[in-house]
Amino acid sequence: MAIPPESFFLSTGAGGTLQQRIRQMVAEGILSGRFRPGDRLPSSRALAAHLGISRITVTLAYTELVASDYLTARGRSGYYVSGNAPVPPDFHSRAASGPQYDYARLTGERFSRTARVARPEDWSRFAYPFIYGQADATLFDHQNWRLCALSALGRRDFEALTSDYYERDDPMLIEYILRHILPRRGIDARAGEVLVTMGAQNALWLAGQVLLAPDRVAVMENPGYPGLRPILAQLGCRVAAVDVDQDGLPPDALPHDADVVFTTASHQSPTNATLPLDRRLDLLRLAGERDFVVVEDDYEFEMSFLKPVSPSLKSLDTEGRVVHIGSFSKSLFPGLRLGYMVAPESFIREARALRAQVLRHPPGHIQRTAAYFLSLGHYDALVNRMRAAFKRRRTVMDEAIRANGLDIAGQGGFGGSSFWMRAPESVDTARLAEVLRGQGVLIEPGGAFFAPDRPDRRHYRLAYSSIAVSRIPEGIALIARALQDDEFSARVP
Amino acid sequence: MAIPPESFFLSTGAGGTLQQRIRQMVAEGILSGRFRPGDRLPSSRALAAHLGISRITVTLAYTELVASDYLTARGRSGYYVSGNAPVPPDFHSRAASGPQYDYARLTGERFSRTARVARPEDWSRFAYPFIYGQADATLFDHQNWRLCALSALGRRDFEALTSDYYERDDPMLIEYILRHILPRRGIDARAGEVLVTMGAQNALWLAGQVLLAPDRVAVMENPGYPGLRPILAQLGCRVAAVDVDQDGLPPDALPHDADVVFTTASHQSPTNATLPLDRRLDLLRLAGERDFVVVEDDYEFEMSFLKPVSPSLKSLDTEGRVVHIGSFSKSLFPGLRLGYMVAPESFIREARALRAQVLRHPPGHIQRTAAYFLSLGHYDALVNRMRAAFKRRRTVMDEAIRANGLDIAGQGGFGGSSFWMRAPESVDTARLAEVLRGQGVLIEPGGAFFAPDRPDRRHYRLAYSSIAVSRIPEGIALIARALQDDEFSARVP
């Protein structure tokens, strides 16, 4: 790589001759690891012009550096960092700096101190990744995604790609969401009622900020989506965790002072329960009577391969009390960071203004690429392929789980991409996950899904969205075997 | 487009025979504009399977809809929405819905009530767009950006593209920033000291959230970057606006209780002043003595084409009190939404955790594409092209401004992409912008840059980052002519 002349400054305080200072800067760059063997140095002409000094000074400094083996000269093509140059030390010296200001003291580490679902970054290198919510490279339609990205990068789409949007999102994506995604959820909306977000997490965050304040009461499902907990904690509102049962959130268990109810009605996260129609109607009736708002996280609706998906809560909402959240993270891939929210315009206007403050807008290129992929039918084809694969995997997994005598706590009648599991009472699944990881098996301990005042260590989640069908039986057998090991079985009385 | 079977639901409450209800759903879809002429309906087999009813019922409903001209049958290829189908009304009926819940009452519209710099979305269709911060399609390197995007979409990079990062950013981008961007600003940092953000706006927002609270004091430059004002307002902290002079922010004018000082030291926004070295050293000395933190928005440093860029504040910071913010929005394009921040690890850790809460991470594909574009040298080439073009435009503009007797309030000695202008005392530049817009000239009225308690209507900004050099003289002449019109000149005593 070529080192730009702008990397060099003649600092005012330093001593020594100009020539010495240039040598020092080069040597420091090499010793700090910034300049690496093979990197080309600026020409003596360019560096001299940049520093406003004579060219001969630079040439002399370079010659000296060649002599000391920091640089090599390659005839007319210039000077390069030598392959024999001193190797930078592994540790990082900060000779010039005193002790650094400690921000932890200032910030109280209020953002970094939250529990997260543990997920190794190199999960795909494990033999049995029962991991949730990651993309499966074997199912994704690379070729067409590339073609769509290329179309979105075309000169014709330059504006959509580069514009600093504020008031609106990519009209092509909005159009597709309005005409083809929302109708599948029974929702009839206008453009002003939809906002594109950086995935469902971003939508939940925006909804929380717009709707809540320290004196208000938010309801979370228990167990529930862990990504919501730090959002509510940060807002300082009161959080009421309501236990879900086999049918999801029971409306009659809601506290009377609820202001905002967060629910994963269609596919409860993590138990996979689907809220029955009568509970949906009850929930919406109560929302009107007690004046609260419902935030519906409608994740994973595309993965209903066993039963037709039920209409969303939003489709039953005549008063505009439901904020509906959808995402392409599961159906396309999580790294895309693309989702949307649907609500009355008076809500969307606020969420849009807040989004602009925080990040302006989701990148135009991402929006346009997704719009092409969706509207050319590749999305439907991909979802169908995923459904078929997930259905096969689920069947194999179901058999393996039963054959190995493991206990399913929730699996959902619609399909989905995971089983919610229950280990014997005394098992700590965080520890179980640790042991299994050493054997190439990744499971998700369930602790993070539970309210801190009702800790639970025995549940865990097994997803089949990223594991090959052929690996499933052996993986499940390994889990069963681990549970029979002394460490875990001994604790059962 | 094909209408998916999932768009159809048999709602439980509705009356009528199954056949009638299907006809109703199709007609409603057409009348509401969701289904459009030429759209293909699901096959009778697919729809029947989806709804769990007999196929003949669907076929009979379709036949009836053909008779009433809602649909047309095209032999074996199926049923389509007819070109003669009733046209949906322009207004949007919500027969089924009552009045919608009013979120404005709940939210107090606290996010949407903030002033912004006015900028028409269709600016590129104006003949004389002296508009700031937009991409210039004539300078951008389309072809190589496309190639880089394609590389980033390759199978080898699938993980970088799709992963749900949390703890880290794209290592390839971080590596480039550490080795090639930051050294040009005199900064030597480690990977844990850098966070990739959704542009500079997002970085400012994160810094504000991490560093400030309602009882703390934030300093803003006056005039200063308008995007910062709503961030600070939202935090509820006390905002002290400090007037800048020809040399930027005067450290001796800082309030004694300042906690965080936001500055655009290298290129003051909008006056273009560069903070001299002695003021930089004073500012950092005061930060240590009075225990405050400095947030340095180092935007546009690449556009120093008249003088070598001065090292950043961060490069002089021995105590870790400077949070340094950079962005690719100006040098690549604003729709990219990509920037970074550099600070001690104890700060970056908090900012990263907050970022995860709000949006998880900037999309992997964007990060990787930028990493390729940067590391293959296309970025340097683009910046050089932009510098050359901006230098030409600036010269022409400078001459035109002087020839027309307009008054420059700040232009900066380094280069940049705009002039900060001053109209005669009684002129309201918001009104001037309105008048000029009618003549195809876009200028930016300066009001939004000033603290609300020190309103100023006479300044305006003229950028040359998106206007062709050939348009400049005529555009400037039009501005001068407008200022001589009765409406504006009459007010001067």
Automatic annotation (TrEMBL), chains A, B:
Keywords of the record: Aminotransferase, DNA-binding, Pyridoxal phosphate, Transcription, Transcription regulation, Transferase
CDD domains linked: AAT_like (cd00609), WHTH_GntR (cd07377)
PROSITE patterns in UniProt: HTH_GNTR
Molecular function GO terms recorded: DNA binding; DNA-binding transcription factor activity; pyridoxal phosphate binding; transaminase activity
Pfam families: Aminotran_1_2, GntR
Stored SUPFAM superfamilies: PLP-dependent transferases (SSF53383), Winged helix' DNA-binding domain (SSF46785)
Domain called HTH gntR-type: residue spans: 16-84
Recorded family membership: In the C-terminal section; belongs to the class-I pyridoxal-phosphate-dependent aminotransferase family.
Protein name: PLP-dependent aminotransferase family protein
The organism of origin for this protein: Neotabrizicola shimadae
Lineage: Bacteria, Pseudomonadati, Pseudomonadota, Alphaproteobacteria, Rhodobacterales
